[in-house]
Model the fold of this input.
Amino acid sequence: MSKNVTEKYLQRYAESEVQRIRPPAKKWKYVLCIPACDEFESLTSTLESIQRCRGAGDVLVCVIINATEDASAEVHSSNQRCADTLREQCGLAGDQFEWGRWSNLDVLLIDRFSAGRRLPIGEGVGLARKIVGDVALSLIHKRCVEKEWIWCTDADVELPMDYFERLQDLPLGTSAAIYPFVHTREGEPLQQRAMELYESFLHYYVLGLKRAGSPYAFYSIGSLIGVDAKSYAVVRGFPKRQAAEDFYLLNKLAKVGAIHTLRGEPVRIAGRESNRVPFGTGAALIEIQVLLERGLSYRVMSPTVFDALGVWLSALDAFVEHRSIENLRSTLRGAPAEFAIMLDDVLEKLGAFRALEAALVQTERGRNQSVQLRRRIHDWNDGFRTLKIVHGLRDAGLGEIDMDSQTA
Done:
């Protein structure tokens, strides 16, 4: 690992926990990070699935039980019961950092749920993931953990037996790996149907991006991520957001390396309702069920949106070679009539052409101009702006279709 990058991050940008933690005189092969908030009923099952993984005896599981100051009394009570269960079953000892053992697993509990230790309002799961990720990075840097990967999942999953073995022999330059997944069908039939529709949408969106040729065609689900430790330091860890921290982390990681999608047995994620964050799986389930209860369809962007995105991405590839804004716009004007004007208008509103003009100026005198220009375009036209383009095209007139039509 690059000590300069990692040491700089740990000294300047990591959360204060890394300065206070004192690990035992022990070494592990793997480190797995789990944020838990209101997870009293599910964390135990997750730990049981981890201990069934091959190599579990060499794993340190870092659990950060957390809540924001404004969380409900029910959440605080659930967190306390969860911590009490861990303390009883793991024989945890310590203060803010409690070390113990769950069967064949070593467990570290980080307390950010007790009064006086709770997370600031508005930061939530992003800060929780950053704290536990920073602790994992610190342990790797101190050679307490052998593998220079930070495994990240959630407290409502079942992991496959070869979970830790899967991050072996990945292509050079991989900054993160994404595990395959499936949501378990839970609750009443309506909730199960909502879960089926939402999972279908996730596949539909990533496949649409892949068909368009986007380098951001991967799943952004916090339960599924393995992060190269050096890359984690380079992008300065998880963003401290209330939601979508996984999306923004991977968006940054895709700019410093490749995001590798793994194959094999899936991570099984609980298909449950949740309003802990403003969007994501739990919130989507609630929204879709409301639609179904009203006899309405769950609608998603039309496939034509991805056709238009593909035209844009193809035009960008050509732009790297001819370096002409006018040629680029001429290509876009020659796109299929059903979206040519919309595509140009959406890109204009997003400032795409101004960004490309700036990139031309910034790379006109450098060496390897094509490489530099491609990098600047990739950084600007990232996953966030790709999402903006997709939504912009949908709202400009390409519209939506019933998700049912894609799952029938």
